[in-house]
Specification:
The structure is a single chain. By secondary structure, the protein is mostly helical. The protein folds into 2 domains: 278 residues, Fic-like fold; 70 residues, Winged helix-like DNA-binding domain superfamily/Winged helix DNA-binding domain (Arc Repressor Mutant, subunit A, Orthogonal Bundle). Helices cover 58% and strands 5% of the residues. It is built from 15 helices and 5 strands. The strands form 2 sheets. Strands 3-5-4 form a 3-stranded antiparallel β-sheet. Strand 4 and strand 5 form a beta hairpin. Helix 6 packs antiparallel against helix 7 and helix 7 packs antiparallel against helix 8.
């Protein structure tokens, strides 16, 4: 890390770590909050983000079946947050993997590595765990460690002490770079521990509006980088969990990973500029623009899913379909890859009835069979997957 780029930063201080002749510089971020100059332009961006987020929250509270949105959106976020870290899995891979079928025969020419899909699934499990855990434990260092343990269990990087803050130095830079070649070196362990305690205290501070605080917290977590692996995914998980914890959203409906992935170079550059120059305004503006754009995107996709579900129910109703057929349609919006066994378990029907229902849904072009095998057939609802992905 080039210390000259950080020497005059108002966001933190340089601290030497290690022992001579192998000592090195680290960057220790100052405790939050910084002093912000909030101008009219930033107020406008905050207002737009609040308005879009409020509309999404209202939609989430009004919808009769929240799983229609929550399950697909969680999986979309898991795919994109993991893709930032280099995985290649897409949402069809994830649905297929959860259904016990990877890859999807005839749909993808090259099989996605199973390890990639397991990483994505771990993100889903960690987020679902976090949402459930919020009922008994507020956002805290303890919860952050628990999320990390679920995220890293049994996957690449799983050797990197899942559920524990690091006890050695890490660094950020090009793949394969050494400590001396790193672009950024987070605090050494003792400084990291102090910074984490200060961050935990700031989670309960209300000195700025919630969305501004989220932008500050996200930067701070990334700058502290408290785990040997998985920091980026945990940092993005914290955004949505804090939105729920602070009652900005009733459920995990908004995710910024797609925005960060689309503007990946700008995302990393702005975080670095905060560390080097104290460029808080540019980072916060970028973060708020992401909240606005992704809230609007989530609203559009949610309405598309609602419209598609309504259209399918109306088609079945016009044909005098049974209540169980309507139940099968609802099941597709939770799990777009299904087999007869799924209908049997969820709808309490026989195998013969389940197969008849699947064939009827296939005739209605709501489902398509995956592959050509005659036994243990699986089907997928491509229109649903297309809306989500």
């Amino acid at each position: 890390m080039n210390p000259e780029r950080f020497r005059d930063s108002p966001s933190g201080r340089l601290v030497k770590a290690g022992r001579r002749p192998h000592d090195y510089w680290t960057f220790v971020p100052n405790p939050l909050p910084p002093e912000l100059s909030i101008d009219l332009g930033l107020i406008q961006k905050l207002s737009e983000a609040d308005r879009a987020l409020g509309e999404l929250a209202g939609l989430g509270r009004a919808i009769s079946n929240p799983h229609l949105l929550i399950r697909p959106f969680i999986r979309r976020e898991a795919v994109l947050s993991s893709r930032i870290e280099g995985t290649q899995a897409d949402i069809a891979d994830l649905y297929a993997y959860e259904a016990g079928q990877l890859p999807l025969p005839g749909l993808k020419p090259v099989a996605t590595p199973e390890a990639d899909v397991q990483e994505v699934l771990n993100y889903v499990l960690a987020l679902e765990y976090g949402v459930q855990r919020l009922q008994s434990l507020p956002i805290s260092l303890r919860l952050i460690r628990e999320l990390h343990e679920h995220l890293m269990r049994g996957v690449r990087g799983g050797h990197a002490t899942p559920g524990e803050f690091r006890r050695s130095q890490n660094w950020i830079g090009a793949p394969g770079c050494t400590l001396d070649e790193a672009d950024f070196v987070p605090p050494a362990v003792e400084d990291m521990q102090r910074a984490l305690r200060a961050l935990e205290s700031y989670l309960h501070d209300e000195s700025y509006p919630p969305l501004l605080r989220l932008a500050l917290i996200h930067y701070q977590f990334e700058a502290i980088h408290p785990f040997l692996d998985g920091n980026g995914r945990i940092g993005r998980l914290l955004i949505i969990l804090l939105m729920i914890h602070w009652q900005l959203l009733p459920a995990p409906l908004l995710y910024l990973s797609v925005y960060f992935h689309r503007h990946r170079e700008q995302y990393y550059a702005l975080l670095m500029q905060v560390s080097q120059e104290g460029a808080w305004r540019a980072w916060i503006a970028f973060f708020l623009e992401g909240v606005t754009s992704q809230a609007i995107d989530a609203i559009v996709r949610a309405k598309q899913l609602q419209d598609l579900q309504r259209d399918w129910h109306e088609r079945l109703l016009s044909q005098g379909a049974t209540g169980r057929m309507h139940g099968a349609v609802d099941l597709l919006f939770e799990n777009p890859v299904v087999a007869a066994q799924d209908l049997m378990a969820r709808l309490d029907v026989s195998h013969q009835t389940a197969m008849r229902m699947l064939r009827q849904l296939e005739e209605q072009e709501m489902l398509a069979q995956i592959g050509e095998r005659q036994r243990n057939r699986r089907y997928w609802a491509k229109q649903i997957v297309d809306v989500v992905s």
